[in-house]
Structures are given as structure tokens and as C-alpha cells.
Amino acid sequence: MNILCITHADFESPGAIETWAKSKGYPFQIKKPYKGEKLDHDSDFDMLILMGGPQSPHRIDEFPYLADEIDLIKTNLHQNKRILGFCLGAQLIGEALGAPTGRSPEKEVGVYPITLTEEGKTDPLLTGLSESFPVIHWHNDMPGLLDDSTLLAYSEGCPRQIIRYKPLVYGFQCHLEIDLDGIKTMVEAVPEDLKESKYTQTRDESLEQDYKPINNIMINLLDRFVQLKG
Prior knowledge:
Number of domains: 1
Order of helices and strands: EHEEHEHEHEEEEHEHH
Number of helices: 7
Distance between the termini: 15 Å
């Protein structure tokens, strides 16, 4: 399983995803368009993973490389490749399919539960998970939703947490991949994101969380994702 991972900030790494890939012996290449690295639309990979970041599809004129990422997603959609997006990455998948990014009703930063929809409870990637379980949030926006996409999970602060766009294409507004080291880096890099709100935890609350169970869910979902049939 050859994996291409696109990141959008030095302080936001693939975390548990990269750990999982290395444990499986999967080739794992990271590209950083925000640092001027060009995307090879003809590169040979089986899975595309798009991470989060501080950018927004609402401001593509400020971040023109996001348009190139959207084009890459479109190419891989046509090739029926496996695609996972987290936070900004999920929003870019929606944009590639014609679903504009929306504004989340609430900013969410910290560990809060999401709840599976009825469709989520029987989804091949999510089946067997608890109806409600904690995940990591760090966002203001949320991915667009199409008539033929399936909403799989929501939270109190955001109605679009997990979306199945196609059998091999999923968007997660939430995070399952960020480990404790990643959280330590983020709270130092963007402390302004921790400004008090209804669904924002403090720096200390964030650092006191146990991220291993959340990361374990991520690893289990990745094991399932590579086995899904298109």
C-alpha cells in the first residue's frame, strides 16, 4: 500500500497515521505544498491522505496551492483510489466533489464526543464502534455535504463530523490521528486557537487528556480502510 500524505503546517503532523504506516511497512511519502513542494499528479500511489491545517478553502486566493490539491483529489477520484481527509483535508475533498465548505455552528478545540448516525452504525468502516466516543477537534469550518454523500457522525458543536463521499472516500472533520506530542506542538504553535468558547478546552485540559484510546481507534480504522472494497 503506497501512501501519499499531504500536510499543511509544520505543527500538524500525521501522528498515529504515520506510526501505523511504518508498522505495516507501507511506503509513506509526505508532501508539503505550503512549503512550495510541487504535487506530481502522475505519481504512483494507492492511498491519498490529506491532513488538517490553518488554511481555509474559503481563502484559496491566499493559498493557491490548495487549488492544485483539489485538482489532485479530482484525478484520484476518477481513478477510484482510496482517499482520507482530516479537517481541512475533508473540506478539500468536498470542494473537489462540488460541495462548498461550510462554517461550523461552533468552534471546537479539544476532546469532545461525536455520535454516529444510523448510517454510521452500519458503515463498513465504522461498524462496531460505540454509538458515541471521544475524538479530537480543532476547527472552525466543516466539510460540504452532497445529496449522494452519507453523513456518518456529528457532534453537539458541528453537524458534519464524518462523511462518506464514496465507498473509498471519507472525510473526517474531527481528528483521531493527533498524539500527545502533536497536541504539545499545537498548543505552543497556535495558542490563539485556545481562546475560550463553548467547546474549547484550555491548554492544561488538552495536555491532560489520554490520546492513546483515540489513536487506537484511528489505527483500527486504517486497518479496515485498506481492506474496503470499492
